[in-house]
TrEMBL record:
InterPro entries: ClpP/crotonase-like_dom_sf, Ech1-like, Enoyl-CoA_hyd/isom_CS, Enoyl-CoA_hydra/iso. SUPFAM superfamilies: ClpP/crotonase (SSF52096). Belongs to the enoyl-CoA hydratase/isomerase family. This is Enoyl-CoA hydratase/isomerase family protein.
């Protein structure tokens, strides 16, 4: 087992024996609020996981009672800790430069769908703004009963810009996604489950056991198969029916050869 501390309060644990990586936001004193350094570290964590072929499942979580309070607002005020990022300083660039920086920040969120491993977000307490978008970036979400999701950017005069709009619409549909983003209203755990945002909602005291059951179920499948399934599912949203059928055929042939011991 290898433990790695990254900037921005990101802790990574690689357990190749159990085929599992754990990525934890570890800034409980500020409810795991995220900074520019956090976003860079999330992308770095994904790169480190991708380099380990043995890893087939990843867990995203937050230290303390909350998953993440979202954007560390000190970055907007100019008093964020040194090295964490300053929005006012960023805005000294021209518009193209600012858009380029945001593209870099988005990498800390899009990287989880791009991983071959299946990513499970474990959400306790509040997942606000960037926290909600990080939860959306996972493949599966397990929520505690006290979990609340809030796309709060509109309250700040902003829009979600870390990949959350597309993912939210894919999961809940246009009308619900528009309402959640435009009103910045809370989505409690039970509504999240009804909308398909939660794969499971469990009592807080049962959360760890429920997560381990889900991980055991995922790890029970040949990692080659689970990676192929994730690749097919991620690609399905952008594929035509014919393209998806072709992708299924292409994925199936080497698996058939593997289980039958035949070659072409």
């Amino acid at each position: 087992m290898e433990e790695i501390s990254l900037p921005g309060g990101v802790e990574l644990v690689l357990d190749e024996n159990r085929r599992t990586a754990r990525v934890r936001l570890d800034r409980p004193d500020v409810r795991n609020a995220q900074t520019m350094a956090t976003w860079s570290a999330l992308a770095r964590a994904a790169d480190l996981i991708r380099a380990r072929d043995a890893i087939s499942v990843v867990v995203l979580s937050g230290a303390g009672p909350d998953f993440s309070a979202g954007l560390d607002l000190r970055m907007l005020r100019g008093d964020a800790p040194a090295g964490e990022g300053d929005v006012r300083e960023l805005l000294g660039r021209d518009d193209a430069g600012v858009r380029g920086a945001i593209a870099d920040f988005q990498r800390g969120f899009t990287c989880w769908r791009e991983l071959p491993a299946i990513v499970v977000a474990v959400i306790t307490g509040r997942a606000v703004g960037a926290g909600f978008q990080l939860a959306l970036a996972a493949d599966l979400r397990i929520l505690s009963e006290d979990a609340v999701l809030v796309m709060a950017e509109a309250r700040l005069g902003l829009v979600p810009d870390l990949g959350g709009t597309r993912r939210l619409m894919e999961i809940v549909g246009y009308a619900h996604a528009l309402e959640i983003c435009a009103t910045a209203g809370p989505v409690d755990a039970r509504r999240a489950e009804r909308l398909g945002l939660a794969n499971a909602v469990v009592p807080n005291e049962d959360l760890d056991a429920a997560v381990e059951r889900q991980l055991d179920a995922l790890r029970a499948v040949d990692p080659v198969v689970s990676r192929a399934v994730k690749t097919l599912m991620v690609g399905a949203t952008a594929s035509t029916p014919a393209e998806q059928l072709a992708a299924e055929r292409a994925a199936q042939v080497p698996l058939l050869r593997k289980i039958t011991g035949t070659s072409g």
